[in-house]
Specification:
Layout: H1 3-15, H2 17-28, H3 40-57, E1 61-64, E2 71-76, E3 86-91, E4 111-114, E5 120-123, H4 131-148, E6 155-160, H5 170-176, H6 178-181, E7 185-188, E8 200-205, E9 207-216, E10 222-223, H7 234-243, H8 266-273, H9 279-284, H10 299-305, E11 308-316, E12 326-327, E13 330-339, H11 345-358, E14 365-374, E15 377-378, H12 384-397, E16 402-406, H13 411-420, E17 423-427, E18 442-444, H14 445-462
Parallel strand pairs: 3-6, 3-7, 7-17, 8-16
Antiparallel strand pairs: 1-2, 2-6, 4-5, 5-18, 8-15, 8-17, 9-13, 9-14, 10-12, 11-13
Helix pairs in contact: 1-4, 1-14, 2-4, 4-14, 5-13, 12-14
Bound molecules: ligand BES and zinc ion.
Ligand BES binds at residues 129-130, 163-164, 166, 190-192, 208, 372, 406, 408-411, 430.
Amino acid sequence: MSSDALSKVLERIDADFDNSLDRLFDLLRIPSISTDPAHAGDCRQAAEWLAKELTGIGIPSSVRETNGHPMVIGHRTGEGKPGPHVLFYGHYDVQPVDPLDLWHTEPFAPRVDTRPDGTKVIVARGSADDKGQLMTFVEAARAWISEAGDLPIDVSIMLEGEEESGSPSLRPFLDANKDELSLDLALVCDTGMWDAETPAVTTMLRGLVGEEIVITAADRDLHSGMYGGLARNPIHILVDILAGLHDEDGRVTVPNFYDGVIEMPDDVMAMWETLGFTTEGFLGEIGLKLPAGEEGRTPLEKIWTRPTCEINGVSGGYQGAGFKTVIASKASAKVSFRLVGNQNPEKIREAFRAYVRSKVPEDCSVEFHEHGGSPALRLDFNSPSLSSARAALEAEWGKPAATIGCGGSIPIVGDFKNRLNMDSLLVGFGLDDDQVHSPNEKYNMKSFKSGIRSWARILAELAK
Ligand code: BES
Ligand code: ZN
């Protein structure tokens, strides 16, 4: 493969870009919300659309069944190609769209918006997380095959439909297809850049434990005047439990929670110092200024390398218009923990449940519902594939790539390592202000276009 081939592929990407955008819009129109059973058919439709698209560009692919939403798997391999055989991973499922009234336009009617500073963005649920990102790779592969006749290295593709709901079907699927999927390197496009001009490779992901608790007190809703004062209120129990999860210094109180947490080495902390991150800048974007969280930690530590506990939802009692003097029978909350280092998801789940049980009076009850668990992950900062990615990203963006952490979780990356013994390369083009999981999610047009070009270059670089 010559550098001439790469130049032609890049030209092809530029020339075909409007069509790339049309194809992304087709995918964005499918409301593939994995957590909502009402959208199971849409998840399947997104999988079918992708399998057809991949097969059409020359990566034979099929929709493969799991216990939940299907996977899309494809392969394009050839004799004696150089470089690693990579497995590209992305997810076609998206988060729910609520609260719908905060969207300026329909979440599944994608559109291009021009911001006051002239920046063009693609607005739709899933534009950044993760349909826009996975399509950067698909479009790069398309350009390679159509312009150069082939991909520079062997490529397999795996697109998941349950990432946003904790990947419940993933592990059995990986185990059942171990030989097919244990390749040399996974390429994962579900992370972000450092800022709109600076590309990044991500080397750390936090893990996750998701738990829902439902507390039941009386066997029916009660008049709060007739019963209040003598009958127990489950919302009081719940808020007491939730308030007790952190101490005055912002540390999580669940017993043994910090077992396995690792302090960052000085050289990594020093490298991050050079990135120029400020609390004012980060929080200012979202209308805040005062840092929350653990005392005595830098802001990047707080979002990348320290474990947290967040309450993601609370419900109970009267939520309608007006007012109702009621003591509800039930109260519930959804709680998640982000994990780092070697923290053990199952031990933390058990410790949390024990803490909750200890706070529930004996005439009341608590139910737990598990919502996923995955350990944190740290990748080798100096692997050859990371160097290839850095070289390709610098060539495309004209700036060295930053090496960053990520506060979010991508459970499969741990499973690739632990179940398939496969390392991952995490490159993505999302930005902090993409509003992922929120109303009005967007993906910068530049992320989409230069993201496609970046993957075209990374494929060439990995072949060297
Ligand atoms: N793409 C995100 C992970 C991410 C978040 C990367 C922020 C970069 C910045 C991913 O789709 C995601 O949201 N994962 C969930 C996983 C969970 C539902 C198991 C998360 O982190 O909450
Ligand atoms: Zn994602």
